[in-house]
Design goal:
The protein is an alpha/beta fold. It contains four helices and twelve strands.
Length: about 160
């Protein structure tokens, strides 16, 4: 299973329910990586999407504790156990955890690959992704050349869980 995320140098991912910054090449990479795949997200992340609608050309699975929550054209699950049961229907290599922070935290133990857009800047933030550079279970296996968007420097990184 995969995770895909954009982080700043403090591994922050959001502030007040919004992304820290929007970088067109990061959004393009996200689209290319997840198109025709399965994306797993929380309800709060879903609420940030245009018209609060599922991402097109993907199977959207939403994890929420709210038993009343429904979304047209999406699968809704209410626990990690229910999510893991649903994910048995898909090739785990085609599953991408896309946020937010509580979903990342809950699903980290089940993932083997993390696609991280690492932004060399610190932003005001209130939600974070686990720092994989400090996690002995993860190793950086690939990094792009330096990318820039106006005054923002960033890298596309790929981390993999160390096989035991």
């Amino acid at each position: 299973m995969n995770m895909i995320v954009a982080v700043d140098e403090n591994w922050a991912i959001g502030n007040k329910g919004e992304l820290l910054v929007r970088i067109p090449n990061d959004q393009k990479m996200f689209r290319n990586e997840t198109i025709n795949k399965v994306v797993v997200l929380g309800r709060k992340t879903m609420d940030t999407f245009p018209q609060k609608q599922p991402l097109p050309k993907r199977t959207n699975i939403i994890l929420t504790r709210n038993p009343e929550y429904t979304v047209k054209d999406a699968i809704v699950v209410h626990s990690v156990e229910e999510l893991l049961e649903e994910l048995k229907n898909y090739n785990s290599e085609d599953v991408y955890i896309i946020g937010g922070d509580s979903v990342y935290q809950q699903m980290l133990p089940y993932c083997d690959v993390a696609h991280v857009t690492y932004i060399e800047q610190a932003y005001a933030a209130d939600s974070y992704f686990p720092n994989l550079d400090k996690d002995p279970e993860w190793t950086l296996v690939a990094e792009s050349d330096e990318q820039t968007y106006f005054d923002i420097t960033y890298y596309f990184r790929k981390y993999e869980r160390i096989k035991k």
